[in-house]
């Protein structure tokens, strides 16, 4: 039997929106207006130092989706002998500034790893409570700025497990920005890549149990439809701050072919110019998606005639 209570929790973990049927009638969990993000760049609003970096870029090769693992708030505070909460406050400032730059260059999708499922389980309760208050404060104080920058708010993760007053504030900001058509800023909250896959497989199992889909007919696209990110393209570029060389359970399905950029800079020191520098690095790479690159040797037209060296 399909657990109606569990299905309700699954919908809540994806978004606050009513579901939209996909091609075969199964809901994606997102409104149609969230399926596309477009923006007219406002390059003239970039500060001079950011404009100098932007002018080295090829606008036609800008990534469509940038995801960021925002790491280093605690270390930023520790190096200054400050309380950890001050590092988180400065990190929130970085979110504001990076989002503004993203909106000015017309980046369609920006997804930030704000609060992991593991954070909620392993951080001191006082720190978790502060982060929840900081989220509410950020949404309150930045709504006007988001409207001015045509930014649309979205969230992914097990949202239904967050405190009710936090969910209410999140819903308020999402609804207030729902008609904006610029950068879609998605905050990953109470999020884990493995838990997302568990939720996706549970949704797929429910679909199979309802005889909407035969097990042998399941494809990658069917799994994709049940992910929290079904309404957005996979990230082209993943940025990780603080120099750590790990994925931290972030967007594990989605980053199969994502370019990764790691910087030693701690998140509270990360600004719009550093986003542009990461994009410049991205544009210097050749994305092959499993194919053959331009400088990977001559391809033998008839491999059967190739003589293998004898040792």
Describe this structure in words.
The chain has 311 residues and is α/β, with parallel strands linked by helices. It contains ten helices and six strands; from the N terminus they run ααβααβααβαβααββα. A six-stranded parallel beta sheet has the order 3-4-2-1-5-6, with helices on both faces. Helix 2 (48-54) packs parallel to helix 10 and helix 4 packs parallel to helix 6 (125-148). The longest helix is centred in the middle third of the chain and has 24 residues, at 125-148. The chain is globular. It starts with a helix and ends in a 28-residue tail after the last helix. Mean pLDDT is 87; it is low at 17-35.
Task: Please write out the topology.
Layout: H1 4-14, H2 48-54, E1 65-69, H3 73-79, H4 84-104, E2 109-116, H5 117-122, H6 125-148, E3 152-156, H7 164-176, E4 184-191, H8 193-209, H9 220-225, E5 237-240, E6 259-262, H10 272-283
Parallel strand pairs: 1-2, 1-5, 2-4, 3-4, 5-6
Helix pairs in contact: 2-10, 3-4, 4-6, 4-10, 6-7
